[in-house]
Amino acid sequence: MSSKPTSVYDFTATTITGQPQPLRDFAGQVLLIVNVASQCGLTPQYQGLQTLQSRHHERGFTVLGFPCNQFGNQEPGEEAEIAEFCTTRFEVNFPLFAKIEVNGDQAHPLFQYLKSEAPGLMGSRAVKWNFTKFLVDRQGRVTARYAPQTAPEALERDITALLDAPPVADGDG
């Protein structure tokens, strides 16, 4: 990618089954992008994330889960194990991606972009822990960053506001 990315749609990530997934495929949707882990004290948030997915998907909302093992080695499994855990334990049906790094030299370019667009507390760029959440509007712009401890249910109002926002004319319709 030679030019500076202008939205999350400029990125591609590998799905949990190993397929490349252009995020442009989610264009026009409100997205909640979350780094997740299966053996974390916050892992029960999968239930809240799935509730948001079930409640708002028909209106154009999707949660994107990115497993990460950078915090306390709390996502040690392989992709197949992660997928099985999420579907059997929490009935997750939102897209899951291959394990990535969110900090450091090997951080996935998507997370480098998310962190630059929505710095954390006191301007920090680093993701502090599992279940950091980034809310993205229908144009692919990062609108908010939420701390790991913020329960998914607490994002309901912000998600609804983006879903209820009038569409922006872009010449396609």
Offer a few descriptive terms.
17% strand, Glutaredoxin, alpha+beta, four-stranded mixed beta sheet
Structure description:
Helix content is 24%, strand content 17%. The chain is built from 4 helices and 6 strands. The chain has helices spanning 45-56, 79-90, 109-117, 156-164; strands at residues 12-14, 20-22, 30-36, 61-67, 133-136, 142-146. A 4-stranded mixed sheet has the order 4-3-5-6, with helices on one face. Strands 1-2 form a two-stranded antiparallel sheet. The chain is globular, with a radius of gyration of 15 Å.
Might you state the CATH topology name? Answer: Glutaredoxin
* Distance between the ends: 28 Å
- What is the CATH superfamily? Glutaredoxin
Spatial extent as radius of gyration? 15 Å
Structural class: alpha+beta
State the order of secondary-structure elements, H for helix, E for strand: EEEHEHHEEH
